[in-house]
Amino acid sequence: MATDSDGPGIALLNDMALRLGRARCKWTKYPRGCKDLADVLKTFGQRGVVETINRALWMEIDGLYRMSELPPLPETPPHDSGFPGLAAHFRLRPGDLTVVTGIPGHGKTTVVNDIACRMVERHKWRVAFASFEQIPQRDHKRWLRTWYTGRFVAEQSPEELSLADHWIEQNFLFVVPGEDDDVTLEWLVERLSSAVVRHGVKLLIIDPWNEIEHDRPPHLTSTEYTGLALRALKRFARKHQIHLIVVAHPKMLRRDQHGEYPFPSLYDIADSAHWYNRPEVGIVVWRGKDGRTIVRIAKARYHDEIGVPGEVVVRYVREQSTFEAA
After folding, report:
1. Domains of the chain: residue spans and CATH
2. Which residues of the chain have pLDDT under 50?
3. The pLDDT value given to residue 179
4. Residues facing 324 on adjacent strands
5. Residue 56 contacts by C-beta under 8 Å, 6 or more apart in sequence?
6. Does an H or E element contain 115, and which?
7. 239 three-class SS
């Protein structure tokens, strides 16, 4: 297209590109001092006109680039948390979304908490908890103190408690809503953004998903809303280069004839199959009557980087708030 380079000509150029499709259009860039092909012919002759047309440029399309045109990304190597047996199945990588599910009381929160503490110790990752079923001043403090010292709080000396509290202060933040706050997804993301930007947090934990006030627009189904929400969280994780873990309860499951709950899947999480489709990693935690806990990596993308699906069997050491190989 060889429209005039003045205002009306530029408007015509964009109007035609809209109708014809920008992907099909080239535009002519005139030599200095020329506003159309007539000026080019007058100044540079027929050869100038031919060269101007031959040098026509493709109209830019946002979101389409050569590799050399893309900005470089930071290196994001995956990190082994040190959780027993998980190195081959689950390595935490900045920019990824992990979903964890399991029957209430089977230890999914305890597994996530143990992984978080291990990431602090191994890799100096700062952690932020948005754990709405736990009270930071009581629940978090107790198990963090126990994890750090390896002993029940009642058995710790004043010096041990002081060291543990200093470790907690340096490495953990807590999202705590006020009495009048509606904990919507937008409200939560704003606090998590502050944790990343102001405090350098690398691991964010939302536990559990169902405690958030989900203001679903009436024109969206639960499945559609969940898909959009998880997509937004994935964008957040990639933008800020943090690892985001979301703990979500499954829908109600019935016990079998032996009194055991069935092993849930990611598809059992309420509201949407997107719980399986969207995350990079999907984990299911299940505890048997013998006290052993199975941690199953039910889904993992990029097997060569963050691990392959599989499971490990561990046992919870209550007096240390951690897990060991069973």
Report:
1. 7-68 (no CATH), 79-325 (3.40.50.300)
2. none
3. 82
4. 315
5. 2, 26, 27, 28, 29
6. helix 108-123
7. helix
